[in-house]
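hey m, so remember when u said the tokens were messed up on ur end? i reran from scratch. heres the input so u can diff it against urs
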Amino acid sequence: MAEGTDAAEFAQFGAEPGWAFAIRHRVRWSECDPFGHANHRAYFEWFEEARNRYLETAGLEALSATTPGPVIAETAIRYRRPLAYGDDILVGARTIRLGNTSFEMEYAVWCRGLCAEGRAVLILVVAATGEKTPLPPGLRRAMLARDPDAREGGRDKQISG
């Protein structure tokens, strides 16, 4: 769990069980559209922030031109309920699949219950060469320790309705 996120905090936001990592965020005015709702792009930014903090705490090395980093190969989101300026939200991230050079993550946003859920398939790539690289063993172990239900290998899962 991130910076003090515990079971009570997950429950406070209406999160379902099965999540071990989340960050808090307050919806900013700049993240809202003319209708007063959090704009769709904001969710992807929240997912990115949760993913980066998740990976940093799991031991991913600081990014550089020669250090492997995650590149999004595929992403999706399903909106459940709108959010507005000032809403305090909890953004969860978890690993659901680990491949050799790729991994898949799920995300969720809660505020008085589930508001959105997403997923991404990421590939570990060396920026300088564009070359795919295997997940480092230490990172893989840390991800599996945090999310023991993550499967190894297999096909990508689609978000269901």
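this time it looks ok to me. The first strand starts at residue 22 and ends at 26. if urs says something different then somethings off w ur setup not the seq
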